[in-house]
Specification:
- It is built from 10 helices and 10 strands.
- It is α/β, with parallel strands linked by helices and about 280 residues long.
- It has a single domain, classed as NADP-dependent oxidoreductase domain (TIM Barrel).
- It binds NADPH dihydro-nicotinamide-adenine-dinucleotide phosphate.
- The site of NADPH dihydro-nicotinamide-adenine-dinucleotide phosphate has 26 residues, from helix 9.
- NADPH dihydro-nicotinamide-adenine-dinucleotide phosphate binds next to helix 9.
């Protein structure tokens, strides 16, 4: 396994396991630099969203890096607002392309299920996929019951489910369900998000000490060894580099078990999708 290792999605598209998150990164030079540093450090997968308001800077960062577009994997997301209304998805998608200054997106996600709107919005997502300008489409924060409902209507199965996932919320049963359905899981807030309490966990600290690694590196390595795509965010160059430095150590089976056992199930940093209906 190395930084270029990819996972094959259910339509054959390859997604790099390690991606770069950009939530809370503003539409400014700082984000342009962060994206460029990430690409310089070897990340080939960037995660943004229309709702983050930073697509323009993310696109600028990709271009500033000088990387060949075809070597990059770019995810963006449909806003959970009026863009979920019938017929609005293509226009929203084209706006994202325009801001990013790209002519295709690798992965386009529905950003949060929205009551009464998600099933129809998925039809719009399918039309975008069929247009050939999104190489894969997927969802965000879907639980098993959201999928059951979606499958009644969907012609194309989501390729990805982006979910809150970290050692205090390892989502083992949802991950197993998604695996059975051929849907890849991506971890958002893998480090516990902004100001989360994960990075001082004593059990993780002990494992990190053994390898001379940081807790962040241990968590991200745990994601990779569990077959989970992970998208840590940072605005600082040293952290961006460190968070990609994951390939010179391997967690032992009993260390993986120890981390899996830190699961507190309901310990969420973000909103609970169980409270959301379609
Ligand atoms: P992460 O778990 O990636 O943690 C990011 C936070 O940890 C930031 O405050 C960052 O600070 C800090 N950090 C990063 N690396 C280190 C390190 N090595 N040591 C110490 N602190 C560190 O949280 P996110 O919530 O950003 O999730 C990752 C990505 O997932 C998002 O950026 C986004 O792309 C996606 N996501 C989507 C959501 C949505 O759309 N609703 C919800 C949440 C996430 P600093 O930047 O100052 O370095």
């Amino acid at each position: 396994m190395d930084i270029n290792t990819t996972k094959k999605l259910n339509n054959g598209v390859e997604i790099p396991y390690l991606g770069f998150g950009t939530l809370r990164s503003k539409d400014n030079e700082e984000t342009v630099n962060a994206v460029r540093w990430a690409i310089d450090a070897g990340y080939r997968h960037i995660d943004t969203a229309a709702g983050y308001g930073n697509e323009k800077s993310v696109g600028q960062g990709i271009r500033a890096s000088g990387i060949n577009r075809k070597k990059m994997f770019v995810t963006t997301k449909l806003k959970p607002d009026e863009d979920m209304l019938p017929g609005a998805q293509m226009k929203a998608f084209e706006k994202s392309l325009d801001l990013l200054q790209l002519d295709y997106i690798d992965l386009y996600l529905i950003h949060w299920p929205v009551a009464g709107k998600t099933l129809q919005a998925w039809e719009g997502m399918e039309a975008i996929y069929k247009s050939g300008r999104a190489r894969a489409i997927g969802v965000f924060n879907f639980t098993e019951r959201h999928f059951v409902e979606l499958f009644r209507n969907a012609k194309i199965k989501p390729a990805v489910n982006q979910i809150e996932l970290h050692p205090h919320l390892s989502q083992q049963s949802l991950v197993r369900y998604c695996e059975t359905e051929g849907i890849a899981c991506e971890a958002w807030s893998p480090l516990g998000g902004d100001g989360g309490k994960l990075l001082d966990d004593p059990a993780l600290n002990k494992i990190a000490g053994k390898y001379g690694k940081s807790i962040a590196q241990v968590i991200l390595r745990w994601n990779l060894q569990n077959g989970i795509i992970t998208i840590p965010k940072s605005i600082h160059q040293t952290r961006i580099v460190d968070n990609a430095n994951l390939y010179d150590f391997e967690l032992l089976a009993d260390e993986m078990k120890t981390i899996n056992a830190l699961d507190q199930d309901s310990r969420r940093f973000g909103r609970d999708p169980n409270t959301l209906n379609f």
